[in-house]
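Researcher: Structure prediction, please.
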Amino acid sequence: MVILSTYLISSATYMSSQWPSISRYRGILYGIAVLTGLLGIGFHSVILFDDITQQNGLYLSLPNVISLIGLQLALIAVIAALNKQMCGFAGGILIVSSLSELTFIWLIDQIGNIPPVVKALTWQIKIHIMTSIFAYGLLCAGAIIAIFALVQDKRLRTKKISSLNSLFAPLETTEKLLFNTATAGSVLLFLSIFSGLIILENIYLQNQAQQIALSITALIMFSTLVYGRNFFGWRGRSAIYLYLCAFFMLAISYFGTRFILENVLGRTWG
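Model: Predicted structure follows.
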């Protein structure tokens, strides 16, 4: 609850620091946002590290993975807000981080006190798993950027001018950030898939066949988007929708597979 509270306070103050009517307090609000954001990230890191690193392996239950992605999003938010134009975006991402913690709490409540099953893992598998999670987290941040871009695009088309506009960076800046995120995320996703194909001796026995097939499909979609942007100048709503479709495919490949394996079939991942 401490983590949840600090993320929500940080989100509110980041967005408030952009509000025109209280611009004279912008420096103070920005300072509070950074401080509470870093405080939440610190608490979150310590608690989650304790939860995940057990014995000689990693305890990557579905709640822990969701919480880890929430931590990564919070870190991305604080870094993005170093550019003052991105404070509204940072506030939005921190709300998603807060939602990830609420989901974590709900899942823990549903699962109850089940003893963790921790498998000893080689360093190669640990690197593969962490690369996968970082790829999902980065591309998740991109999905939030894409939603921001869609909202901006709609407001510009309808010529809506209000104080809410101050929460958004210029559309060109948002789109550039989206495609940079897509590029970096695609590289991480490729490394994740490639290392998985090399490390996992039997994909079917490792319960990874469906996940890898869907992840490859998502990678093709992200790569197509990056290629189209670099060589044909793709932008606008069509490009944003393609990104969101690719991310949806990726989310299904991981979280859908995890949920079915752990909660329907009663099998473990890894």
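Model: The chain has a mean pLDDT of 82.
Researcher: Thanks, that helps.
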